[in-house]
Design a protein that fits this description.
Elements lengths: L31 H26 L36 H7 L38
């Protein structure tokens, strides 16, 4: 036999973790004052964003206007020069052709040259300390 009777109302056979949880009392939402303040903050934020976009778009009316045309000078803009041959330069292009054919260009480095001596910084002489003021005789 068992110690528990089926008609015994004092025993609690229910599991507590399966029971419905009662929510602690609440007012059912934020107060009216909090709601009004939140709406006002939202409206100010939206106004700031829209105002900022408007300000950025219209900062400088001169920058946003269409470009103006620059009038061309009268007469032809291309004129054939008096001396169409250009200036003759002695040896122009000869270096590239000489180097391509195995010649030595004039831009060689003299590896036997003596290197320059480095410049050493001279220490500065310490500045003289200012002398004490002389007393004034009265």
């Amino acid at each position: 036999m068992t110690d528990i009777r089926a008609d015994d109302g004092g025993t609690d056979d229910r599991l507590p973790w399966l029971e419905a949880v009662e929510e602690d009392g609440g007012e059912g939402g934020p107060s009216a004052l909090k709601l009004i303040v939140a709406v006002l903050i939202g409206l100010v934020a939206i106004g700031g964003i829209v105002g900022g976009i408007f300000w950025m778009g219209n900062r400088d009316a001169n920058e946003n206007r269409p470009p103006e045309r620059i009038a061309a000078a009268e007469g032809p803009y291309k004129v054939k020069p008096d001396n169409p041959g250009g200036m003759a330069v002695e040896g122009q292009g000869a270096t590239a052709f000489d180097a391509a054919q195995g010649g030595t260009p004039n831009a060689s480095i003299d590896t036997d040259a003596v290197p320059e001596t480095p410049v050493t910084a001279q220490p500065k002489a310490p500045a003289a300390a200012p002398s004490a003021p002389t007393p004034v005789k009265a």
